[in-house]
Amino acid sequence: MHLRYSFRLYPEPGQRSALARAFGCARVVFNDAVRARRDAHAAKEPYPTSKVLSASLITGAKQRPERSWLGDVSAVVLQQALRDADTAYANFFASLKGERKGPKMGEPSFRARRDSRQAVRFTANARWKITEGGRLSLPKIGEVRVKWSRSLPSKPSTVTVIKDAADRYFASFVIDTDPVADAAKMPATDSCAGIDLGLTHFAVLDDGTKIDSPRFLRRAEKKLKKAQRELSRKQKGSKNRAKARLKFARAHAQVADARREFHHQFSTRIIRENQTVVVENLAVNGLARMRLAKSVQDAGWSQFVDMLEYKAKRYGREFVRIGRFTPTTRTCSACGHLDGPKPLSVREWICPACDTLHDRDINAAKNVKAAGQGGSSLRSIGKTKPPASPGARRGVKKQEATESRTENRAA
């Protein structure tokens, strides 16, 4: 299994200049490749192959005065930029043909100098290495100081140097994990966890455990608003505006880092304690366009669920997603009775069939677990949207559908 390990870099002033040249040269080669293919498409000619582009945009370009500075950086960086363009077009065409899952991909666009993220990649051919002193030695850049927060489990195959909007540098290593070593870290258990994600509580487990939502964005909102106002008042192109932009970017980076750290810690805990993890397949993209959009994005459900999925695969756990239309909130976890829609204001309800008092979130988590284990009819119900009652009035149908969508959004 391939994983990425990221570490903070602290380049010296001269190394920052060398990295800036590498970022710029990689960007120019990528843009030249996109332009060449757009020109070929406009002329109704076949797209030039990677071999032709490499000869003209890298090898031949270095011989021309206007592109001679491409020789100041490692050739591997330029070749990887060309490969990135190939990958972008391959994803674009696969999306057009319907062969690629997920949202539709647009045609590759030009990279800009002012992009918030700059990156270059070094493969084994670049002969980069980690020195005995713990520094990262990069060709034509030098030995860059690295802050090692943990040791690498195996020898990395490639390293990507990234500069983000907050003017921070990172080294992202690609490694192959050892399944035997991973299995030894987390022995198998017989526990199963059903997780109900929400906004009032970030997550509620089927055993009654409730994890409060940290609300990192909400807590930092005052600081972010102040930084945004200071940025808007600065004159464009001035040094003060550059300083204000950096301050604003770092404030947002702190929020994103805190949220990611919380997701990592909680997801690792869930995977360590349970052999099977069951969650609901939420339509986060749709929920992010509703009135609770800011709270949904602040929670970061997609990032958390993705962490659960890849960690479960790494450590030999079972990860299950149930259908988003599964009536987990409206179904009694004790007797299986399907009750009516529950507005968000209803946090507790009594089952009319067995008189059991339910906490809305804990009951939903129990039903999520039951549906994931296949021991309940909920799993088959969740495959399709539950139909409205045949004898219901049109207004009642519309109201129930609205409440169901609201329930899936914040239950």
Task: Please tell me about this protein's structure.
With 411 residues, the protein is of the alpha+beta class. The C terminus is likely disordered. A hairpin with a 3-residue loop joins strand 8 and strand 9. The relative contact order is 0.10. The chain contains 13 helices and 14 strands. The protein has a 7-stranded antiparallel β-sheet. Strands 10-9-8-11-12 form a 5-stranded mixed β-sheet. Strands 13-14 form a two-stranded antiparallel sheet. The chain is 44% helix and 17% strand.
Structural class: alpha+beta
Radius of gyration: 26 Å
Shape, per Cα inertia axes: elongated
Tell me the strand order in the biggest sheet. 2-6-7-1-5-4-3
Proportion of residues in helical segments? 40-55%
| Main beta sheet | 7 strands, antiparallel
Topology diagram in text:
Layout: E1 2-10, H1 13-42, H2 50-59, H3 75-97, E2 118-122, E3 129-130, E4 136-138, E5 142-147, E6 158-163, E7 169-176, H4 179-185, E8 192-197, E9 201-205, E10 210-212, H5 216-219, H6 221-232, H7 239-273, E11 276-280, H8 284-287, H9 293-299, H10 301-314, E12 318-322, E13 348-350, E14 357-359, H11 360-373, H12 378-381, H13 394-410
Parallel strand pairs: 8-11, 11-12
Antiparallel strand pairs: 1-5, 1-7, 2-6, 3-4, 4-5, 6-7, 8-9, 9-10, 13-14
Helix pairs in contact: 1-3, 2-3, 6-7, 7-10
